[in-house]
Amino acid sequence: MRTAKPLKRRPPPTAEDWQKKRDKERERKSRRQSRKTSAVLARIGRLTAEPATTTEWEEGFLGSVSERLQVFGSAFRDPEKGTPGAPLSVLQGRKLRQIEKSVNGWNAKPIARKQPD
Q1: Is residue 3 one of the residues assigned to a domain?
Q2: Whole-angstrom distance, CA of residue 86 vs CA of residue 33
Q3: Cα separation of 54 and 94, whole Å?
Q4: What is the pLDDT of residues 24-39, one digit of tens each?
Q5: What confidence score (pLDDT) does residue 22 get?
Q6: Is residue 100 in a domain?
């Protein structure tokens, strides 16, 4: 009759193991955010390549957003306006899509605003 081998137990994780895990997670999040930021900058670059199709306000908006992305990695400060780690706030993303649609010749609707009661 066979006897069961005793189970080899792993030692409990040390503080150093936890630190390595946290560092790896931070690095992963940082890489993800930089990929998102570079993708948004590429979109803005494609839009500003044809300045004749954008208005002066749109050019200013795209310039300020790209500047903030390059300096800070995010174009907004208030965490309630977007998700953490996102390069643009919700409204900035919506406006960027509208500008893309107008440059590409698609029908762009303005942002609907709530009327005060």
Answers
A1: no
A2: 7
A3: 16
A4: 998 888 888 888 888 8
A5: 92
A6: yes
